[in-house]
Amino acid sequence: MPEVAIIGVGLHRFGRFPGKSAIEMGADAARLALADAGIKWRDVQFAFGGSYEADNPDAVVNQLGLTGIPFTDVYNGCATAASALSLASRAITSGEFEIGVAVGMDKHKPGAFAADPVDYSLPSWYGEAGFFLTPKFFAMKIQRYMHDYGISPQTLARVAAKNYRNGSLNPNAFRRTPLTEDAILKSRVVNDPLTQYMFCSPDEGAAAVVLCRADIASRFTSRPVYLLASEVRTRRFGAFEVHGPCFPPAERAPAPTVDVSRAAYERAGVGPEDVDVVQLQDTDAGAEVYHMAENGLCADGDQERLLAEGATEIGGRLPVNTDGGLIANGEPIGASGLRQVHELVLQLRGTAGERQVPGSPQVGYAQLYGAPGTAGVSIVTL
Amino acid sequence: MTQVPIAEGLLTFAGGSPRLLASHCTRCAARAFPVQAGCARCGSVELETVELSPDGTLWTWTSQEFLPKSPPYAGPETPENFAPYFVGYVEVPEGLAVETRLTGFGDRKPRIGERLRLVALPFRADEEGNEVVIPAFAPAGPQGGTDA
Questions:
Q1: At what angle do helices A22-37 and A333-349 cross, to 10 degrees?
Q2: Is residue B82 part of a domain?
Q3: Cβ B33–A130 below 8 Å, yes or no?
Q4: What pLDDT is stored for residue A112 in this prediction?
Q5: Percent of chain A residues topping a pLDDT of 70
Q6: How far is B39 from chain A (nearest CA, A)?
Q7: Nearest to B72 by CA among A135, A110, A128, A123
Q8: Across chain A, what does the average pLDDT equal?
Q9: B145 forms bridges with which residues in the sheet?
Q10: Which residue segment(s) compose the domain that B64 sits in?
């Protein structure tokens, strides 16, 4: 019997919203999730809020109501939203609470993220000499992966084109204009082999989820979506990771996504073969390719054939990033993983509109990965 | 012009040509670059500083085609005169792949598996007129531009 149910989801559109704060977007997403659950903020017993740019995402209470509940802020790199959801889930399974909210919001400036390398346990020269950048890591990881497993640049373009196409069907997406594979391949090279249109961009937006103890979900909805697992893991010694100035190739450890994926499948009691709809961290088109394998959804190298066959399209046998993923939605870090869960809930309810996966999907899977080597996976089912 | 490394403890010229400095864990023998305060494998703080071999093979690479944000980037380029450069991970015989600038490829792209050798790459001038250098790996062929 599942322990935790999702009874409401809400999303503030991702994109650029001059004059609107991250907190305001977070409050909007929370209101939508509460309305979806058919409850009021005063019914909520606890909350976790995720953000990178907003120091105090809990400030949404100024707009939702000062009810005095425990509200804990979370920042965990690109896995921030997965961490908020994981902690919210555990607050319920601990037995202390029955109903709570996970909300994530962000408002990033354009361009690659900037920070102080010293805060990442790195020397200052790493930044001064131009190494403290995330895009080049993703480029180097897929460069080696393409060399080892025969993945072509065309496959990277297919991933990006699919995600823009899916984004064009999603009214909440940041980028809603389809792009051809040719236009993607011929756009400006950012970090070889990745071009401008193969990358997501930091942007703005918010998402929220209302969770409750599974045995009371029927009070709120006739169709709860159960959260079977929501796990977070960090890199082990030997993994090849973003902002890692060295690693031992002969002792290379699996990426944290591999570890968190196995942990999530085990907790959920399902396997990759049971998954009907998938949201993966597509920081760039290459990340979606190797994340397919790291999450056990295919063997290394099979992506070349799967993408050519259209297997990861909305109508394919393994739909990936049905709402356009990060490539079409951008990445407000605090909200990104809750956007994925929002999309999975719509898909399982059968209310995803033009981008609905056919055949009544029963199991949804979401994965996040980010600096400095942190990954999260959530698995949901009807 | 005197060459000075971009940071103390990163490079040594003690033997004449540049060598990268790394940590060697006296408990579990794990190595790490750059020098660390604690071992990433076993957590020991009993680390000694060792030199890495200047020869390696290219494990992966990419091009850096936009000017990194300053700060933290401290290179002398402007958006107008910025020239893309290569970076990569080079596997040295001590069992480590180290992240580094790549240089000396002319008009061609680096190739995974090719033999490279450590050089000190001029980066910028400091206030005293010294030439600040960063570690980089270049093709190991006799002309510095040929594949081994």
A1: 20
A2: yes
A3: no
A4: 64
A5: 99
A6: 10
A7: A128
A8: 96
A9: none
A10: 3-139
Confidence of residue A120 (pLDDT cuts 50, 70, 90): confident
Query: In this predicted model, what pLDDT tens digit does every residue of B50-77 receive, in sequence order?
Result: 999 999 999 999 999 999 999 999 999 9
Which of B66, B86, B105 to mutate to probe the A interface, most A CBs <10 Å? B66
Phi, psi of A136 (to 5 degrees): -65, -30
Chain A partners of B32 at a C-beta cutoff of 8 Å? 246
Nearest CA in chain A to B38: A121
Kindly state whether residue B145 falls inside one of the protein's structural domains.
no
pLDDT in tens, A220-252: 999 999 999 999 999 999 999 999 999 999 999
Name chain B contacts of A251, Cβ cutoff 8 Å: 95
- Say what the pLDDT of residue B142 is: 60
Does A18 lie at the interface with B, CB-CB under 8 angstroms? no
3-state secondary structure of A225: strand
Phi and psi at A168, nearest 5°, equal -65, -20
B141 — pLDDT class (breaks 50, 70, 90)? confident
Neighbouring residues of A343: CB distance < 8 A, sequence distance ≥ 6: A279, A322, A323, A352
Residue A143 and residue A123: Cα distance in Å, rounded? 26
Beta bridge partners of B31: B24
Q: Is residue B132 part of a domain?
A: yes
Q: Is B79 on the interface with A (CB under 8 A)?
A: no
pTM of the model: 0.96
pLDDT interval class at B25 (50, 70, 90): very high
Q: CA A39 to CA A208: how far, in whole Å?
A: 14
Angle at B122 between CA B120 and CA B124, to 5 degrees: 140
Per-residue pLDDT tens digits for A31-69: 999 999 999 999 999 999 999 999 999 999 999 999 999
Task: Calculate ∠ Cα A140-A144-A147, nearest 5°.
Answer: 140
Please, which residues 8-27 of chain B have a Cβ atom closer than 8 Å to chain A?
Answer: 10, 22
Asked if B112 has any chain A CB less than 8 Å from its own CB, the reply is: yes
Give the whole-angstrom CA distance, residue A335 versus residue A54: 12
**B50 — contact with chain A (CB < 8 Å)?**
no
Give the DSSP letter string of chain B.
--EEESSTTTEE-TTSS-EEEEEEETTT--EESS--SS-TTT----EEEEEPPSEEEEEEEEEE-SPPPTTT---S--TTT---EEEEEEEETTTEEEEEEE---TTSPP-TT-EEEEEEEEEEE-TTS-EEEEEEEEE-STTSSS--
- Axis crossing angle, helix A333-349 with helix A80-93, rounded to the nearest 10: 60
A266: CB partners within 8 A, 6+ apart = none
Count of domains forming chain B: 1
Q: What is the mean pLDDT of residues A148-159?
A: 98
User: Using CA atoms, how far apart are residues A334 and A339, in angstroms rounded to an integer?
Assistant: 10
**ipTM of this complex:** 0.94
Asked if residue B144 belongs to a domain, the reply is no
Q: Nearest Cβ partner of A116 from B31, B72, B98?
A: B72
Check: CB of residue A227 under 8 Å from CB of residue A2. Answer: yes
